[in-house]
Amino acid sequence: MRKLIAASLFVLPTLMHAQQSPVRAEAPKMMAAAAAVAPKVSTFTGIIAPKRITDIDRAVFVGLTSAQPVVAKFNVDAQGVPQNIVVEGTNEAAAAKVSDAVSKLRYQAGKLNGQSYEFPMVLKFDLR
Predict the structure, then answer these.
(1) Are 49 and 119 in contact (CB under 8 A)?
(2) What is the pTM of this model?
(3) Distance (Å, whole) CA 23 – CA 20
(4) Three-class SS of residue 68?
(5) CATH architecture of 47-125
(6) Fewer C-beta within 10 Å: the chain N or C terminus?
């Protein structure tokens, strides 16, 4: 215990002197200059996929048949509306009906870093 007290009495004047030394003001100025030159960093807040808020009227598909699944590829724009609809895997008449049904869907727009964004989507229909 005596050694601890003796060591602290020896070190104490050195620490007191270090606390009383003046602080230089150049470091904050240099940091401010570096911050002005540095590029802005964007924080990634995540991706939120579009959510369908309306459903397809199933009556559209009555009488349509296809030996393979029908695929509708499209983009959901920032307002939640399907754009650039491409239908694969069926004849032209059925593709027109599927395209019309998909165009009536509405989505809650997807978000990227908190901003609405256009997202690609794929829907598969089994018309067998």
Answers:
(1) yes
(2) 0.60
(3) 9
(4) coil
(5) 2-Layer Sandwich (3.30)
(6) N
The whole-angstrom separation of Cα 75 and Cα 38 is 36
Question: How do the domains of the chain map onto residue ranges?
Answer: 2-37, 47-125
* pLDDT computed for residue 52 by the predictor: 82
In the structure encoding, which two tokens stand for residue 76, read together?
């959901």
**Inter-residue contact 52 to 105 (CB < 8 Å):** yes
| Phi-psi group of 32: left, alpha or beta (phi > 0 → left; psi -120 to 50 → alpha; rest → beta) | alpha
**Of the ranges 54-63, 64-73, 80-89, the best mean pLDDT one:** 80-89
Output the 3-class SS for 94-115: HHHHHHHHHHCCCEECEEECCE
Q: Taking the mean position of all CA atoms in its chain, how far away is CA 118?
A: 11
Please name the helix (run of DSSP H) or strand (run of DSSP E) that holds residue 84, with its range, or none: strand 82-88
Could you tell me if 127 and 61 are in contact, meaning their C-beta atoms sit under 8 angstroms apart? yes
